[in-house]
Amino acid sequence: MSALTLSTSSATTQRADVLVIGVAKGAKGPVVAPGGEAVDKAYGGKLAATLDALGASGNEGETTKLPAPAAGLKAPVVLAVGLGEAPGKHESFGLETLRRAAGTAARALAGTKKAAFALPVDDPAGVGAVAEGALLGAYSFSAYRSSAEGRKNGRKGGASGEKKDKAAASAPLAEITVVGAKPRDKAHKAAAERAEVLAAEVVRARDLVNTPSNDLTPAVFADHAREAAKQHSLDIEVLDEGALAKGGYGGILGVGKGSENPPRLVRISHTHPKAQKTVALVGKGITYDSGGISLKPVGHNETMKCDMSGAAAVFAAVVSAARLGLRVNVTGWLALAENMPSGSATRPGDVLHMYSGKTVEVLNTDAEGRLVLADALTRAGEESPDAIVDIATLTGAMMVALGNRTFGVLSNSDDFRSTVHELAEQAGEASWPMPMPTHLRKGLESPVADISNIGERPGGGLVAGLFLNEFVDEDVLWAHLDIAGPAFNDSGPFGYTPKGGTGSGVRTLVRLAERAAAGELP
């Protein structure tokens, strides 16, 4: 990950390869945003006019690169990044606007060694937003890229000449300086350190999501958790297929029985001696989802390595809580399985005996996420946490309802649903509160078991929430995050969001842990 520093020095004195400033969309054209005043002066007060002549408008996501003037700046290049509409006279740019602008600039500066960000920073929150956005925007996943020479010789590495130049040009921005931040100010320093932790853990989640399924089986995922637990002094317990069978985890076993890679249930937890609250986080970890016997159609399999995004988010959030030293107990449950068709796979019409004691008729083996979550939710509830939140790439129906950038929030409490939605917005993650209409529960009735794993097709994302609700005690606060849309970006990058795994949900879960640490759960 990129190195981060804070600087109180003027933007004009920054020794960097590129100086980043903000430009907003004004009534009569682009206007230089706060933080760039000294830079504008170096251009003789004509920076906005120059940008206008170059076609810049100040729209969000826009970047314009121009050479520094002959005198007045230490950096040889200036990058103007669009912030969108200029705020009113007594208003400031929103934190998410700053995150996206910093991320856009960082992405545009791939191959650059050092950049100084002179964006509108007037408080610790602004420092954190710029740092977070820049660090996330500089992300690159290159673990599986090798040189032409390396491939020819059957080994990795060995790049030379033009190949080296190409690799250097695409390398992430190496060093980030936030101008206007105070490295000796406790609040500014804390905001920057929090941003570094969040970014590092979102990167952890992104890397896991981007890792191909042949290299990330349930057992390998569990090994990653063991390594992190050792590094960050976390408690961990891993249930293998034998322990799952002995414990009666019929949902997780039922999903994983068709694969040669057996399932796992991982419990990983951060505890604090002064904690007053306990939060349980449950993540769907289907390391590959073929749909099982209810095989997915052509065109729907290619990105199914991302079906463990919920577990990745939970894993990263627990580690974040530990690294931030949050005064709250956070327990993560990673329900890991590979959903494959084979002679031993669960068939449509089979009945599973769940950990809770309930029976489930499996009518569609591609509705497998709710089965592994059900077992993990029941187990998490046995520890009587103050709140349980599960997160999963659960239903295509939620994508139909909310698109690819917004996740749905369902809950057994209106107040808690509103709280989680509020926290997601604060974190910069788009979400929307969704209902759980009781009349849809009838569609889950089974003639042979306690419940079926699918119901009516209309409102499928809501039906999935109703199914999960069956495995949560009524007196426990519970919320369900369906991140099917934003977990994996298979279109072009935007803001600080890359193509591929996004790390969706990590920052929301951390905000929830912070709220719980402050004793502010509903």
Please characterize this protein's 3D structure.
The structure is a single chain. With 522 residues, this protein is of the alpha/beta class. Helix content is 35%, strand content 21%. The protein has 16 helices and 20 strands. The chain has helices spanning 37-42, 47-53, 95-108, 124-137, 148-152, 162-170, 186-210, 218-232, 241-247, 250-256, 309-324, 369-381, 396-402, 414-427, 460-469, 506-517; strands at residues 3-7, 18-26, 29-32, 63-67, 77-85, 114-118, 175-179, 235-239, 264-270, 278-289, 329-339, 351-353, 359-361, 387-392, 407-411, 431-433, 451-452, 477-482, 488-489, 500-501. An 8-stranded mixed sheet has the order 8-9-11-10-14-18-15-16, sandwiched between helices. Strands 1, 2, 3, 4, 5, 6 and 7 form a 7-stranded mixed sheet that branches. A 3-stranded mixed sheet has the order 12-13-17. The longest helix is centred in the middle third of the chain and has 25 residues, at 186-210. It is elongated, with a radius of gyration of 24 Å. The protein starts with a strand and ends in a 5-residue tail after the last helix. The model is unreliable at 148-158 (pLDDT under 50).
Looking at this protein, list some descriptive labels.
alpha/beta; 522 residues; 16 helices; 20 strands
